[in-house]
Amino acid sequence: MRSSSRGAKIGRAYPTAHHIDGRASGGRPLHFGLHPCHRPCLRAKAAQSGLAELPLPEGSLGLPVVGETLELITNGDTFGTSRRERYGDVYKTNILGAPTVMVYGEDAVRAVLAAEDRLVASDWPQVTSTLVGPDSLNLLTGPRHGAVKRALSDAFADRALRRHVPAIAELVQAVFDRVVLGGAGSRDRAAQLQAVMSALQAGFNTPPVQLPFTAYGKAVAARQEFGQLVSQSIQRSRQHTAASATVSVSPSSAPAFDCAMSDVVAAAAAAAATGTALPDSLLVDNAAAAFFGNASTGPSLAKALQHLATNAAGPNGGATGGVMAALRQEQQDIVSRHGPAITAEALDEMSYGTAVARELLRITPAVPAVFRLALVDFELQGRRIPKGWRVWCHVGDSVTRYNKDQFQPERWLGSSGPEYSLPFGSGVRTCLGRNLVMTELLVVLAVLARGYEWEAVNPAEQWGVVPSPAPKEGLRVRLHRRL
User: Is the distance from CB of 174 to CB of 204 less than 8 angstroms?
Assistant: First the structure.
């Protein structure tokens, strides 16, 4: 096995004349939110001798035209692992029609993501513009990306989400009752959105052939349906705001979906007052991006059902140990102090639940890798990354061992610190919906621990990696209410 370098360095970018050496233009130290041990030096210099002589990353570009795409499809579970063992944290390949550099390891990943818009730019499949929207934060770049993200940040901040926790809990409960258990439920919209997002997600992994019977055609239709739902919600939110101005109306009186949208509409109005226009089409596109990102937490929730079922008993089979027993005890203590309602204050006390949520995101991140495009030639760990090549930054070491990892929430409770895990990315493109994802995971864990028992039909079920992480047999569970 080839050892990887701990010191991730990006240097000598060409042919720019910018200097990115960890300081702002006025001489003030510029920190990227990194631990001092993980603050790699970033430099971009004018063209000079040396870079051309640097070797490309090790690896293979495979066959002409197809590269190594066929091997990725057929051996997706081991494709990245075998090459990382052979070549180290930075290696080259050719997949999906483009030469690509695969990047692993915290130092190297953080270094690349910190160079956004200077050495690399966000890179998404062409279908993203159609299925998510051209004005989504995924596709916006430069100053416009920063302005829109700042304008929408208040709507997704923890303080804004706190008041929606009871509504989220009600929705989660309704989904389990209606979708999982076949009960009466109370949120038909949940089933509708689930169907829409499922069809939309399927469109990213198929040829972009838009016909009524193709997966891509169905995804385009689902995107149009979703746009209509969001537009209707925007109008309801504005009507609710107008009514609130004349009559005392509680925000909780609006449907859960509209409660969150009312914050986005308010953020758009505040931005317009300062000269930043956020048209309804932009709000629709970013709602699609938010819901799609939310749908991507499905693998993390599936892992919860698998691992919590497996860990329901203690190490010797007793009922007093295990992850699930610890979650149930924590919920009992919270209910004794706060009552049965799942509120923001209740989530605040879920220290063990938070460790479980973090472990779920570590072991099965919503997005295993974030994609960038090299804007210029630059150096990474002594290797030359050519302009125009794709750069895939993997958000944690767990992405190479889906079926060989250890589920240990306690690693997040100790002082030594866990292995690196960046499930929401890093740098200027850190996921805007990270607080929403964590809130939803905590609510789901609370609902499961309080009210349900389940067993996995196949506790040792293996997971596939390509085209996206998913249990190979669908992860069937026997779920029933706790008596």
Answer: no
